[in-house]
Design a protein that fits this description.
Layout: H1 2-15, H2 28-38, H3 46-56, H4 65-80, E1 84-90, E2 99-112, E3 116-117, E4 121-122, E5 133-139, H5 145-148, E6 159-161, H6 181-187, H7 221-227, E7 232-235, E8 260-262, H8 265-276, E9 282-293, E10 298-304, E11 309-319, H9 329-349, E12 355-362, H10 370-379, E13 381-383, E14 425-427, H11 429-432, E15 434-439, E16 447-451, H12 459-466, E17 476-478, H13 487-491, E18 497-502, H14 507-511, H15 524-543
Parallel strand pairs: 5-6, 6-7, 7-8, 11-12, 11-15, 15-18, 16-17
Antiparallel strand pairs: 1-10, 2-3, 2-9, 4-8, 5-9, 10-12, 13-14, 16-18
Length: about 575
């Protein structure tokens, strides 16, 4: 009996210690200084940074005048804090951004049978109306050229409802959630199960909308509507509650396109139901969209130089761009502000850095991780394959986009994936000097752990690094991949790149690419935690004796060369 009690006591004591690598050295005094700077509301600047990026300079659509102004503000702030080599570093390839775009005016309202406002946002890069226009509304759900012929000659000046009115479910579950201990425990399992047969994806509803080019290969329905002289197209999404999603295609040619507007399901449904009762509806709109030829393409960068290992680099990053229905707060001013604040914390706390710590704020992420891919190509590794059409030369592959507007799949379900480079990569000297990259891009929610990207060797290291933050909820590691954001550009070329696990809060239910993605959706306590954790991970990566371990590069397809 006594032996059993002793064994239980030993087991309990062992459980109280972190499971990690005994060789990891953590300067807890330095971590305390970082915490004092980042977790104290009197010291933190993360919400003020967020307000500048959203209220003043949002939205930040890539190629727009707003993102240029936001980047200039961010660069000035990083310089003010004492970072070095701050710059708006140009992309090596424009990647199809031949024109910038901004919406300067939007007005839409029904005028008969009674007047009511119609909120909405034009799809990115779609044209405006050339002043105030008025037209009747028609519902056209047919998708093939043959079926549409019955409308030929009847759509001039009409506003098209291009889909049936959706059913809108109630919020039967809370739209805001924290990740439970049970969910974190399940994430730690290696398996990454997909949807079960017969079970619908609960996040599918409401994430698309606005394309209209479907139903018949080789036939573009939107082009047909334009050829018939329609005034514009209205689209919606079934999540309702005043929420709608937005996207856009940078390749849209305004000379051959038609105005496209995303509106809430409530207004869309009202229009459709009146038409179903044979009640004519007339609306008017005045939409001004402006185009800028060949806008600057860049990433914002800056760094804190290291000491004895200054030629080796740790990076913090987040995508800086957003869509334009709101001010781009949770996607992704939240990540950008947290990483800027992390750099301020490192500088202000006075902790010593052996390696150089560099921040990068990416543009073009919403169009396929373009900014980070261009940076990786310029600094670390370029694909030896000929460039795929429209992707620039030698870049790691873009993450697959969802159906509409280049939107990402839901957080936590995003595809990982490396490869796509058939002949291997040509590596640059900086590749060997790279220590690690940390990314934030899952909204405002508090960091709860790290996706390891199948890199088993970093698990014991990160377990010890997380221990000072267990009390604020960072407890979990998962071997699983997560994709759809900029750490994938590093992971694709064999560099250790990681995305943090975050609480969902309202990301997929309310804010991701929607008209509600504003400053009010940010959680100040979470934002302070995230900036502090990011600063600490950068500090720990900068000061350990060795760079973070790397997982093996995938073999090139068909036995081709490595490109090294």
């Amino acid at each position: 009996m006594k032996r059993t009690i002793i064994a239980l006591a030993v087991a309990a004591a062992a459980a109280s210690f972190p499971i990690g690598a005994a060789s990891e050295k953590i300067d807890y005094d330095a971590i305390s200084r970082i915490k004092a700077q980042g977790l104290n509301p009197a010291n933190s600047q993360v919400m003020d940074i967020s307000s500048w990026l959203t209220d003043v300079h949002g939205p930040r659509l890539t190629g727009s005048p707003n993102i240029q102004k936001a980047a200039e503000w961010a660069a000035a702030k990083l310089t003010e804090w004492g970072l070095q080599h701050v710059a708006l570093e140009p992309w090596g390839d424009r990647n199809g951004f031949d024109r910038g775009w901004a919406n300067e005016k939007f007005y839409m309202a029904a005028v008969s049978p009674q007047a009511f406002p119609i909120p909405g946002t034009p799809t990115g890069w779609s044209p405006g109306t050339n002043g105030l226009v008025r037209g009747d509304v028609v519902l056209v759900t047919e998708t093939t050229q043959e079926d549409l012929q019955k409308y030929a000659g009847k759509l001039k000046g009409k506003w098209i409802l291009a889909q049936a009115a959706p059913d809108v479910a109630a919020f039967w579950s809370a739209p805001a959630t924290r990740t439970t201990p049970e969910e974190l425990e399940r994430m730690e399992l290696a398996a990454n199960p997909g949807p079960e047969f017969g079970v619908a994806n609960p996040n599918a509803a409401g994430r698309g909308g606005g394309r209209g080019n479907f139903g018949q290969p080789g036939f573009n329905r939107n082009d047909w509507f334009r050829s018939e002289g329609a005034a514009g197209l209205l689209s919606t999404a079934p999540r309702g509650h005043g929420i709608y999603v937005i996207g856009g295609n940078r390749a849209t040619d305004p000379a051959s396109a038609i105005p496209q507007i995303s509106i809430p399901a409530e207004q869309y449904g009202r229009l459709a139901r009146m038409l179903a009762k044979n009640v004519p509806v007339t609306i008017e709109a005045d939409i001004k969209n402006t185009y800028t030829p060949n806008p600057p393409m860049f990433n914002v960068v800056g760094e804190l130089p290291g000491t004895d290992k200054a030629d080796e680099v740790v990076m913090l990053g987040a995508h800086f761009d957003s869509w334009h229905a709101s001010t781009g707060a949770t996607d992704n001013a939240a990540g950008s502000a947290a990483m800027m604040e992390a750099m301020r914390i490192l500088k202000q706390s006075g902790v010593k850095l052996r390696r150089t710590v560099r921040i990068a704020l990416w543009t073009g992420e919403e169009q396929g991780l373009i900014g980070s891919r261009e940076y990786v190509k310029a600094h670390f590794a370029a694909c030896s394959d000929p460039a795929p059409a429209g992707r620039g030369t030698g870049a790691p592959p873009a993450a697959p986009a969802a159906a509409a507007g280049g939107q990402q799949p839901p957080a936590g379900q995003r595809g990982g994936g490396r490869g796509g480079c058939q002949t291997g990569y040509t590596f640059k000297p900086e590749h060997a000097k790279f220590a690690g990259y940390f990314n934030i891009d899952n909204g405002t929610g508090a960091i709860r752990g790290v996706y390891l990207q199948q890199n088993d060797a970093v698990a014991p290291i990160f377990r010890e690094w997380m221990e000072p933050f267990r009390s604020i909820g960072m407890t979990s590691l998962t071997i699983r991949n997560t994709g759809g954001t900029d750490h994938g550009s590093y992971d694709a070329v064999g560099l250790p790149g990681f995305q943090f696990i975050q609480d969902e809060v309202e990301y997929d239910t309310m804010t991701h690419h929607t008209n509600l993605d504003s400053y009010e959706r940010l959680q100040p306590g979470d934002m302070m935690k995230n900036a502090t954790i990011a600063a600490s991970f950068a500090y720990l990566a900068a000061n350990r004796d060795e760079k973070l371990p790397r997982k093996p590069m995938p073999a090139p397809a068909a036995g081709r060369g490595t490109g090294q």
